[in-house]
Design goal:
heterodimer, A: about 110 residues, mainly beta, 6-stranded mixed sheet, B: about 120 residues, 7-stranded mixed sheet, 4-stranded antiparallel sheet, about 0% helix, about 50% strand, globular
């Protein structure tokens, strides 16, 4: 039930864009996105409920494609502070445990 | 608003020893979670409480792990006896209101090393 994230890692220069994908083999009720910096606790970014809603958080936005059971996180005009590991957490319909993907490590360089 | 508190921050033990972790969630948060995060992996849910009742503990290795949440506030997670593969960061998180739709606030974690 663990969602699959891709890519595993991405290196960006400041100002560049990136997309992180999160896919599930089961129907999803919601998708949660968190960012974790090295040695720190995960920090909540946003929740997307089924219905294809797109949300934004500063220049970080996300979409949820219910038909594909996939969510994408968009990092736009990346900043140094965006560096960290991004995790998606998925809630399966009729199974409300939050399962986290393995994470995508983002490194933003000046 | 104070965040989720956890102690200790670090613990080193020998295999077959016992260890306990403590978590104090954000005041008023009804739901409390314990996660295990092995290096390089995402957090794995061990147990979820709603007030002082267990909502889900299907991934908790009950032969060695136990958890309780007395009076619906603080919680402790215990491992007895510890194995080498228990080396990980143990994260506590809490959320308010409805169980499933609210963001989870994570504590700093306890890094356990089993030798």
């Amino acid at each position: 039930q663990q969602p699959v994230q891709s890519p595993q890692a991405v290196i960006l220069r400041e100002g560049e864009d990136a997309v992180i994908n999160c896919s599930s083999s089961k129907a999803l009720y919601s998708v949660h996105w968190y960012r974790q910096k090295h040695g720190e606790a995960p920090v909540f970014l946003m929740i997307l409920l089924k219905g294809g809603e797109q949300k934004g958080h500063d220049k970080i936005s996300a979409s949820f494609n219910e038909k594909k059971q996939q969510s994408s996180l968009y990092l736009t005009a990346s900043q140094l502070s965006y560096s960290g590991t991004y995790f998606c957490g998925t809630e399966i319909a009729n199974d409300y445990k939050l399962s986290f993907g393995a994470g995508t490590t983002v490194t933003v360089r000046a | 608003e104070a965040g989720v508190a956890q102690s200790p921050r670090y613990k080193i033990i020998e295999k077959r020893q016992s260890v306990a972790f403590w978590c104090n969630p954000i005041s008023g948060h009804a739901t409390l979670y314990w996660y295990q995060q092995i290096l390089g992996q995402g957090p794995k849910l061990l147990i979820q409480f709603q007030n002082n009742g267990v909502v889900d503990d299907s991934q908790l290795p009950k032969d060695r792990f136990s958890a309780e949440r007395l009076k619906g506030v603080d919680s402790t997670l215990k491992i007895q006896p510890a194995k080498l593969e228990d080396s990980a960061v143990y994260l506590c998180a809490s959320s308010s209101g409805q169980i499933y739709y609210n963001e989870q606030f994570f504590g700093p974690g306890t890094r356990l090393t089993v030798l």
